[in-house]
Amino acid sequence: MADRARSISSAARFGLTESRAEEELRAAGLWGDTGPISEHEVTLTALSRTPDPDLALRGIDRVRTHDPESWPELRAALTVDRRLRGRLLSVLGSSTALSDFVAVRAGEWRRLRESGTAATGYTETLLGAVDAPTTGGPQGSVAALRGAEAVRALKFAYRGLILELAADDLGHLVEPALEEPSYEQVAGRLSDLAEAALRAALAVAWAENGGAEAQERAQLAVIAMGKCGGHELNYVSDVDVVFVGEGDTTLATRVASAMMRVATEACFEVDAALRPEGKAGALVRTLDGHEAYYKRWARTWEFQALLKARPIAGDADLGRAYVDAVSPMVWIAADRDNFVADVQAMRRRVEDHVPSQLVERELKLGRGGLRDVEFAVQLLQLVHGRTDESLRLGSTVDALAALGAGGYVGRSDAVELADSYRFLRTLEHRLQLQRLRRTHLFPAEADTADLRWLARAAGVGPDRGRSAAQVLVAEFRAHGNKIRRLHEKLFYRPLLAAVSRVPTDALRLNEKQAAARLAALGYTSPDGALQHIKALTAGVSRRAAIQTALLPVLLDLLGGTADPDGGLLAYRKVSEALAATPWYLRVLRDEGAVVQRLATLLGTSKLVPDLIVRAPEVLRLLSDPKALTDRDPAEVATSLRNAVNRHSYLGNAVTAARSLRRHEVLRVACADLLGFMDVMSVCEALSSVWSAVLQATLAAVDRSEAAAAGSHPATIAVIGMGRLGGAELGYGSDADVMFVCEPAPGVSDSDALRYAGRVAQSVRKLLGSPSQDPPLQVDVDLRPEGRQGAIVRTLESYRTYYKQWSEVWEAQALLRARPVAGDADLGARFIEMIDPVRYPQGGLDAAQVREIRRIKARVDTERLPRGADPTTHTKLGRGGLADVEWTLQLIQLRHAHAHPALRTPSTMEGLTAAEAAGLITPADTAALREAWLLATQVRNAATLVRGKQTDQVPTMGRELAAVAAALGHPSDTDAGAFLDSYRRTTRRARAVIEHVFYDD
C-alpha cells in the first residue's frame, strides 16, 4: 500500500492523479523502476501542461495499444519534436473524440508532425477523398465515390483536417513557443473547412443523381447563412444553408437533399430551415421565387438572417445573382414598420425559451451570452448599414470593429464587447472539442473537475490565491455581465428606433432633394440648414462620422419643434463649442433620450443653448428625469457655499457662485421645458438658487472686508422682498432685497453702517457685473424712502422708520419679506419687528384701502409699457400677476391680524388661506389661482424662448408656437388657440378682481 501511494505521489508531479497512471507510463516505456526515464521527462512535463494529463496519458496508451508498430517512432519523436509534442498532447488532453480518432487510425498522428493542410487546400483534400476532380465545371465537380463509401471517405478526411486545426488551436497550451492562433483565425478556418465539405458533398450528390449530364439540366447554388456565412463557424455547429435552383428544379431538389444527407452523415448537420417559409417551404426555389417571397412575405427576422448570406458552393454565377437580388432588400429592411421593436422582441423570445435553471450558464442563448452580442451588432448594422457600406460585414467581430471605427459604438464599448465575445466563443470551442458534440453549456459550479479542465483548456490559470476554476468562473461572470450591460445599452438604445424611422431614401438624397425634404420637415431656410449640415459632417474624422449618424434623426426631431432652423443653428453652435469635450457626442449617440430632449430644447429656447455651451455637464442629466428634478435645494446651497469658500480671491469666489447658478438655472430650465417640473417647483428652485448665491457672495464679501478692516464691525442679514421673498422668482427676475445690520459690541452705529454699506454695495456690484448668463441684479428700491434712502439700516433704524414714517404701500411691500441670506438670528428679529407693520391690528381703515386702490389704478395706467397689449402682458396686464397679487395683498393687510394662516409670503398659500377663512369664494380662488399660475408659466416660457426677460406673451409666429409648445400644447395644433385660452383665463380672473379688489 505504501509503495502504491509513493508511485501515485511520484506520478502526481506531472499532474497525473489516476491510480493506473504509473502502470500506463511503464507500459509506454516512459517510466523506469525509480521514476521517469530521463530522456522522456520532457514528454512528461509537456503532458503535465495539457488540460487533462490523465486523459492525455490514456490517449497515448491507446495509440500504443492500437498502433504498436508506429509507437517506438512516436515515443522517440515526442522527445525531440516540440511541434509534434505540443500539438498531439494538447489534443489528447482536450478531446476524447479526437483521441479516439488518433487511436483507431494507425499513423494518423504523423499529420501533426508537419505544418498541416492550409485552408486553401481544404477543398482539394476533401474532393480528393471522394475521388472528385479539383477543377470541375460551373456546377462543381462530380465525385467517383457514392453512397456509404463516399460518406466514410469524406468523414475520415474531414475529421483529419479537424484534428490538424484543433492541434494548431491548442498546441500553445503545452508548448508556449508554438504560435497561438486568434479566435478569428480558428473560426475562419472552420468556415473554410465547412465550405470544402459542402463542395465535396455536392460532388457526391451530383454523382448520385446523373453526374455531369444532370448538371446540364439543372443549376444549383448553395448559399451559406448564419455563422458559416459570417465566416465564424464553431467546431460543432449546424451549417445553415439556402438553395437556389434553375432549370429542372425537381432534379436540383434531389441533388440538394443528397448533399445535405452526405454532409450530415460525414461531417456536420446541414440545416435549410432559414429558407423561405422555413421547413414548410420548398427546399429549392428559383431566383425569381426567392425574390418574390422576400419582397412580399418575408418577416423582419428573415432579413436579419440574410445579413450573412454568401454563396459557397455550386453554380457561382447563380449564387452571385442571388446575393445581388436579396442584398438591396436587406439594407432597406430597417424601413419596415416596427423593425427595431420586432428585432428586440425576437431576442426576448429566444431568451425566454432557455430553461430558467440554465439561463445563467448558457453561453449562446442566455443573458449575457453570444446572442446578446450578435443581436445588438446585427441591429446596429441593419439600421446604420443602409447608408454606410463599411458596416455590411458578415463577421460579428469585424462588424463590431467597423461600428466602433464609424462612431456608431464607443471605441471602448466595441473593444470590450469584442473581447468578451471572443472569450465566450473560445470557451464554446473548448467545450465542443471535448467530445465533438454541439454544446453551449458552461459547467455548473459544483463540477470542479470540469471547471478545472475548461480553465486549463482556455489558458486560464490560478491568481491571487484563487484556483484556476475559481478564476474562470469569475471571468465568465464578469464577461457575461459586461455583455449584458453593453447589449442593453446598444440593443435598446432609443436612438436606434428613431434612426430606423428615417426612410432610407431620405438618407441618400442629393443636395436638391435634401433641400426639398428639409422644407417638407418645416425648415424655412433649407439652404441654410444644408450649410449647417455640411459644416457638422465635413471631413473624415470620427466626430464627423458620429454627426452623420445623428443628424438624420436630429433633423426629424427638430422638424417637430417650433423653430427647426433656430434649433439646427443652435445645435451647430453647441457642437462647435463642445468639439473638444470628449464625451459630448458619445452621450448623444449612446443616450437616445438625450438627443430627443436636446432637440426639443434647442428648437424651443434661445436661452438654453447659450447656457449649455457654458454648462455642458447638464447634458448628461437629460437621460434621467430624476437627475434633472430631484435636487435638494439645501444640497444645492451647500455645494454653492462650499465652492465659493474654496476661493480666497473675491473675484474667483463670485465666478464660482455664478458657475453653479448657471448650472442650476440650466438644469431647472431643461426640466421645465421638458415638462418634468411644475411651475411652482420651478419658481421655488430658482428662488432657492438666488438665495444661495446671495448667501455665498455675502459671506465671501463679508470675509474679505473684515480681513481688510482687521475686525468684524457688524452682522448683516439680507431680507428677500417681492418674488424672491415669496419664492416665486422667474428666470430673469431681479432679486428685491433689503439689507439690515447690527453693530458688533463696542462698535458705533455709524461705523457699522459704513462697513455694512461697503459689503452691500460690493455684493450688488459683483453680482450685477456684465455676464452672458441671465442677469443677477440686486434691487434695493423697496427699502425705506426708496431710492433716496440708505441702502443699509440698523434694525433699530428700521423699527423707528416703520413706526413713525412708513406708508401703507410699504406695509404692503413687507408682506413678502423673509430672510434669505446673512445672519439668521438678525433676520428672524427683523421679521418679528415688521409683523405688526404688515399685519396691522384691526386691519386697514377706509382711507388706507382707498390709497391702495388709488396706487393700483396708477400702476394700471402708468406702469404698463408703451405699446404693450394689456390682454397679453403677464405682469401688469388685465388678470395678470400684479392683479392677482394686489388682490391677495389687500386681503392680507385687512384680515391677516385675525387669520394667522394669511401671514405667508407665498401667493398660492395666501389664496388658499383666504378661501379657508371665507374671505373669497372657492370659484373666485380657482380663477385667480389659474390665472396666476398660467401667467407665471407663460412669463417663464417667454423668457426661455426669447433668451431674455420678457413680460409680453408673443402673439404670432414661431415665438408664440414655441411658448405654446413649452406649455405642453401639441405642436400640430394652432398656437392661436393657446393665445385665446390665455386671454380667456386672465379675463375671468380680471372679473373676479373687479369685485374682490374694488368692491367692499
Automatic annotation (TrEMBL):
Residues 183-320, 596-831 form the Glutamate-ammonia ligase adenylyltransferase repeated domain. Residues 503-1000 are annotated as: Adenylyl transferase. InterPro entries: GlnE (IPR023057), GlnE_rpt_dom (IPR005190), NT_sf (IPR043519), PII_UdlTrfase/GS_AdlTrfase (IPR013546). Residues 345-491, 872-996 form the PII-uridylyltransferase/Glutamine-synthetase adenylyltransferase domain. Residues 1-495 are annotated as: Adenylyl removase. Pfam families: GlnD_UR_UTase, GlnE. Its cofactor is Mg(2+). It is an enzyme of class 2 (transferase). Coiled coil: none annotated. GO terms for molecular function: [glutamate-ammonia-ligase] adenylyltransferase activity; [glutamine synthetase]-adenylyl-L-tyrosine phosphorylase activity; ATP binding; ligase activity; magnesium ion binding. One of its GO terms (cellular component) is cytosol. The keyword Ribosomal protein does not apply. GO terms for biological process: regulation of glutamine family amino acid metabolic process. It comes from the Bacteria. PANTHER family: BIFUNCTIONAL GLUTAMINE SYNTHETASE ADENYLYLTRANSFERASE_ADENYLYL-REMOVING ENZYME, GLUTAMINE SYNTHETASE ADENYLYLTRANSFERASE. Involved in the regulation of glutamine synthetase GlnA, a key enzyme in the process to assimilate ammonia. When cellular nitrogen levels are high, the C-terminal adenylyl transferase (AT) inactivates GlnA by covalent transfer of an adenylyl group from ATP to specific tyrosine residue of GlnA, thus reducing its activity. Conversely, when nitrogen levels are low, the N-terminal adenylyl removase (AR) activates GlnA by removing the adenylyl group by phosphorolysis, increasing its activity. This is Bifunctional glutamine synthetase adenylyltransferase/adenylyl-removing enzyme.
